[in-house]
Write a structure and sequence with these properties.
The termini are close together. The chain has two domains: 259 residues, Glycogen Phosphorylase B (Rossmann fold); 208 residues, Rossmann fold (3-Layer(aba) Sandwich). Strand 10, helix 12 and strand 11 form a beta-alpha-beta unit. The chain is globular and about 75 Å long. The chain is 40% helix and 14% strand. With 496 residues, the protein is of the alpha/beta class. Helix 1 crosses helix 17 and helix 9 packs across helix 15.
């Protein structure tokens, strides 16, 4: 196929290119931009710290680097989506239709019909009635805020009537305008643009929140639903009567331009390096890592066993160093737990060099030490620099639910083996050869401890082989260049 495309694409995001979220979209966008003549981005809202409108100079606001043929439009919402007052003000007092929601409200919200179970580690078998009502109102007011804005809808119709593809990066929020937008476009253009919607984790698995509104309405209106995992595609096929016209899986990917391979056995001699990266929320269970490490420290016989095993290969075992990247509402609770568990050897938010110097001193003067550094929110590039410069023996992610975590891809790209729970599409990431451990979703601190120890006790030769396997797995299956080029081609091929 000719690589020169003279087509227009409109991309709907949550906040990209503003703020720091949707980092994986920043990797994908250049590949899509190569295939289209022009792209217009419509963020849903601008995160806190920036305001919309001409007064704020939205088009001149600082945001992440984007390709030259990509332009950023004003957001769909003139307020932060997380603002309850904004949702009520703009979503309640509007002339937008509401009858479309009555069946949804009485059937799925009140009646709980066809609401997939949430899972035992969520909020019950399915979201409680009060929870479903709140989630419904949140989405309903957001949707009415958009479709009730006459000037905005007129602008969208004008823009979309000249577009070939409408691409919604998430399968909730902005994507819900699709049936209303398509209806208005029927009289404005002879050629209807193709609608592609990606589905990740929280926007596809109703078990994550217990309920997601307007699923059937959305699936009927899209031309191609694009789950990022085969598990997600199966979930849609299994749980909903109305199916998208086309359902096709395209995996995400991550970039790694570093030619330097991560330090295979960690930077500090004799120290077992553990790293994790996620929001500190209940869903991610980051505190379980602290619990598991604490259990290791309490078992002196186990520590001696590890030391003797490593000594046979001329290696020491002086301690464990755990670094976590990511903030969230439960970060303070995690800090308090780590302070209680590890006392003087707990650090919070320290940069790599400062922490490393302190840790080296502690480890050299203590027969066995555990060092914990909770870095909090850290710029994405700094996380990758840490992987490159420090290396790690093990990456851990024990979430209750996931799509296909980019954090695992990034760990693989630096040759870091992974312990992860078998949820969502995670199993699709563990292919062919040993690259870590895929564990049951009903994980406990005790079983996590056992898996960590199991890996520590592996011969050095086997550990190194697993690390090379992890890197090879990324090169074959999760390289952004391969996966995003394939998806960009699919967007263009849909126009033939």
């Amino acid at each position: 196929m000719d690589n020169t495309y003279k087509h227009k694409l409109i991309l709907f995001t949550d906040t990209f290119p503003y703020g720091a979220a949707e980092t994986f979209l920043a990797d994908e966008l250049p590949y899509v931009a190569e295939k289209f003549d022009s792209i217009a981005i419509y963020p849903l809202y601008i995160p806190e710290g920036k305001t919309s409108g001409k007064k704020a100079g939205i088009r001149e606001s600082a945001h992440r680097q984007i390709p030259a043929n990509v332009k950023v439009a004003e957001p769909l919402l003139p307020f932060n989506h997380k603002s309850k007052l904004g949702l009520i003000k703009h979503g309640l007092f509007t002339s937008a239709p509401f009858f479309f929601a009555t069946k949804e409200f009485f059937s799925r919200v009140i009646g709980g019909a066809n609401v997939p179970p949430a899972g035992k580690y969520m909020i019950g078998k399915k979201a409680r009635l009060g929870k479903r009502i709140w989630i419904f109102c949140d989405y309903f007011f957001m949707l009415r805020s958009i479709i009730g804005n006459k000037l905005l809808m007129e602008r969208l119709v004008r823009e979309c009537s000249m577009a070939d593809v409408l691409y919604f990066y998430w399968g909730d929020k902005s994507a819900l305008i699709t049936p209303f937008l398509k209806k208005k476009l029927e009289g404005a253009t002879s050629i209807m643009p193709k609608v592609f919607v990606r589905f990740h984790g929280s926007d596809i698995y109703e078990r994550a929140k217990g309920y997601l509104p307007f699923r059937e309405m959305l699936y009927q209106s899209v031309d191609c639903a694009v789950p990022i995992s085969y598990d997600g595609a199966h979930y849609i096929q299994k749980n909903y009567k109305h199916q998208p016209k086309l359902l096709e899986t395209f995996h995400l990917g991550c970039s790694n331009k570093d030619t330097k391979f991560a330090n295979l056995m960690g930077k500090l001699p004799g120290v077992f390096e553990i790293v994790s990266c996620s929001n500190v929320i209940e869903l991610k269970r980051v505190d379980m890592i602290a619990d598991a490490i604490k259990l290791i420290t309490e078992d002196s016989a186990l520590i001696q066993k590890i030391r003797e095993k490593r000594a046979t290969e001329g290696m020491k075992f002086t301690g464990i160093h755990w670094t976590h990247f990511g903030g969230g509402p439960l970060l303070d609770d995690l800090k308090n737990k780590c302070l209680k568990y590890f006392n003087k050897n707990f650090n919070s938010g320290e940069d790599n060099n400062k922490a490393e110097n302190k840790h080296s001193s502690v480890l050299n003067n203590d027969p066995f030490s555990v060092i914990v550094n909770l870095r909090g929110p850290v710029e994405h590039s700094k996380i990758l620099e840490y992987y490159r410069d420090n290396g790690a023996n093990l990456f851990i992610l024990v979430s209750r639910t996931e799509g296909v975590p980019v954090s695992i891809m990034e760990a693989f790209s630096y040759g870091i083996p992974v312990i992860a729970t078998n949820v969502g599409g995670v199993s699709e990431m563990f292919r062919n050869c040993p690259i870590g451990y895929l564990v049951d979703a009903a994980q406990t601190p005790e079983t996590l401890k056992d898996y960590i120890v199991k890996y520590i006790l592996l011969p050095k030769k086997e550990q190194i082989a697993i690390q090379y396997n992890a890197r090879a797995n990324w090169e074959e299956n999760w390289d952004a260049e391969k996966n995003f080029t394939s998806f960009a081609d699919a967007l263009c091929n849909s126009l033939n």
